[in-house]
Amino acid sequence: MSHCFTEVIMKPLGDSALIVQLGEGISPSIHQKVQALSMLLNTYPFDGFIESVPAFNNITIHYDPVLVHHTQLNNLANNQSSLTSFQIVCSNINELIQQIDDTQKVEARLVEIPVLYGGEYGPDLDDVAAYHKISPEDVIRIHTQSDCLVYMLGFAPGFPFMGGMDERISTPRRETPRLSIAPGSVGIAGKQTGVYPLETPGGWQIIGRTPLDLFRPDLSPPTLLQAGDKIKFVQISPEEYHSYKEMKR
Amino acid sequence: MTVKVLNQGLLTSIQDLGRYGSQKYGVIVSGAMDKYSLRVANLLVGNNENEGALEVTLLGTSLQFEKDMLIAITGGDLLASIDGEKAPTWRPILVRKGSVLQFKSPLKGCRAYVAFAGGIAVQEVMGSKSTYLRAGIGGFKGRALQKDDVITCSEMNEFSTLLFNKLNKRNGSFRWTVNYDVLINLQQTQTIRVIRGTEFDRFDEKSKRTLFNEPYTLTTQADRMGYRMEGPPLSLAKEFELLSEGVTHGTIQVPPNGNPIILMADRQTTGGYPKIAQIISADLPSMGQLQPTAKIHFKEISHEEAEIELLKKEQIINEIKTGIRFKGLYI
């Protein structure tokens, strides 16, 4: 069942969190393991578990060492505990890892993100095209044909770290970052593509904008995208962009 | 029961113990920079320790009470006064209708906490009253307090009412105070205990020694998100690329310029810089009381010792909790 988990490493991130390393580099197969362990943790949380944060090839687990300690004392009638909270948490996680079944894949959602490319909403589209000596239309075609996968969220609420963009449009970050990038902006930085949920400074090449809200604190979950989602970008016209915006009001 | 903001000061925001459970969505934890002071402030007025309270930064904040109220002031000593008289701190106090509470300047520490009996009546967002300034959610309308804002407080519970009535009869405050120096250190030169970070071994030998032998100074780029430190630069033994992964409160990360950054309450959920060390949880509240130019000596302890130090502090909080109950009921 879990024969391929010999490479699991657990590293303390201080006294109240730890990082469970499930592999090296970025690949959909390691991502599957990260997703599987995240789901198990949320379904069978141990006493003292606070939350888990998936990343490309590891998961950070935040826990309350005081609660872990007291739970242990309560469970031991004779009070002769000698395990640290960290050791207890590690053994709990090890048990969960044993339950990961590689043959069972977590079903991914497919999310379409409508994008108005170019113009004032995508000021770097022409630069990206010029960098690769192709037309702006080619950039849009390649971007919309990419099958992207959300590996993790971070940096800002709802900001997806995605892999899978066609490398023919990989472009280095801008030399001078912009002081302000509008929410919904779709950008490229190196091999990555992403969407800015909030207004922030940033150095990504902005090629378009989506009318969707990536962060919606009143809803549960509070973000449009989640780790594990498959993403397809879809080109829309200015009229469609504005009717999306109207619909939200 | 309402409180009016006469002056917002440098930065005053509503914080509780933080917004947990949404970091996987990139939603930051926020919460009080000095959690022990927040917890004690709440306990002193009979609140749940996780209740939202005001976090006052350095100076300038001034509040007017529009009714008689039970409050407590803890944290750094920011020369708090009530109607011009030195305000008692670290104990429950009754303030009269029309009174003005003012924070003049930081004598010791950086942040004070004001808890109101009953708690602050604002909506929880994703399970917390903490203000997430950058995303504009939580706390008071998602932002720091401003002049003329009016904060409303909720109904007091039974124990708060009992404290309120006792103080009302005695016309003032109790004689007893909580001894805070067993919980937090307000000195601006101090030793902070750390354990090794996940990438400690990736740093060169000189950096590994320097971190524990040389002092580091807080620069003026120090806020709720993090502290940029200045001192002998730290460097990796060999360059390598780290993918973004989880970070936490007290993570000490080192960007390519070699000056460490300490992540604080409003840190991002993930980061991509190598992590040389991690401040132990028991010392984080003291970190929240440091001002720019403060000097830190990092001292390495083991992971096991870090857990023991945290359990000791929890024990102290428990004793304070019991003490407040006892004194409130019988003294």
UniProtKB/TrEMBL annotation, chain A:
SUPFAM superfamilies, per database record: Cyclophilin-like, PH0987 N-terminal domain-like
Question: Which Pfam family, giving just one, matches this sequence?
Answer: CT_C_D
Against Gene3D superfamilies, the record matches this protein to: 3.30.1360.40, Cyclophilin-like
Keywords of the record, alphabetical order, are:
ATP-binding, Hydrolase, Nucleotide-binding
Q: InterPro entries of this UniProt entry? A: CT_C_D, Cyclophilin-like_dom_sf, PxpB
Q: Which GO terms describe its molecular function?
A: ATP binding; hydrolase activity
- Record-annotated Carboxyltransferase domain positions: 8-225
PANTHER family in UniProt = 5-OXOPROLINASE SUBUNIT B
The name this protein carries in UniProt is: Kinase inhibitor
Give the species this sequence originates from.
Answer: Domibacillus aminovorans
Automatic annotation (TrEMBL), chain B:
Q: Name one Pfam family in it.
A: CT_A_B
Alphabetized, the UniProt keywords read: ATP-binding, Hydrolase, Nucleotide-binding
The record's PANTHER family line, in alphabetical order, gives:
5-OXOPROLINASE SUBUNIT C (PTHR43309:SF5)
Give the source species: Domibacillus aminovorans
Q: Which SMART domains match?
A: AHS2 (SM00797)
Q: Which GO terms describe its molecular function?
A: ATP binding; hydrolase activity
Keyword check for Ion transport: no
Instruction: Tell me the protein's name.
Output: KipI antagonist
Note the NCBIfam families from the entry.
urea_amlyse_rel
Q: Where is the Carboxyltransferase domain?
A: 24-316
